[in-house]
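My main concern about presentation is that the manuscript never shows what a single data entry looks like. For the editor and my fellow referees, an illustration may be useful. For illustration, here is how one protein appears when written out as sequence plus structure tokens:

***
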Amino acid sequence: MTLYHFSEEDDISIFKPRVKDNRKNMPPVVWAIDEEHQFTFFFPRSCPRIVYTKHDNINEQDFIRFFGTTKANIVITVETNWYNSIMNTTLFRYELPNDSCSIFDETAGYYISYEEVKPKCMTPVNNGIERLMEMNIEVRFTPELNTLRNELLKSTIKDFGIHKFDNAIRTIR
């Protein structure tokens, strides 16, 4: 199994466990993502995004609403105002040894280590959108993510991720 950590920093020689802002109830850990789910990190770190995937238990109405116009099994939606940052940010994918890592969330592909982790190697990642298209993942842009988030939470889609939503544009209804 191959594990990665994505960063906008190109000079990390050791990953030290730390407490995440949105998981203050957890002890310090190093986070990693498996190879299958790495595509969810082809975006700048702070970029809010929603990822959802086809699965067998989606009702017909939700299937038509969320997948009716695509052949893709995975859709990622980001806010339009992030386009330039997405296109101009170089990411760095660090390959991590998996000997100290344990599964945290199998559905999302998240692993954690309570120990310091020395990366095996680092590869620059440019053109994340192009990579996603090569993987037959549909990328959508929208002025704001709130509407999609609210509709998704009410739907029968259960395989989804809402990333960095605190950075999304807030709308008042």
Strands lie at 3-7, 30-34, 49-53, 74-79, 91-96, 102-105, 110-113, 121-125, 137-142, 160-163.
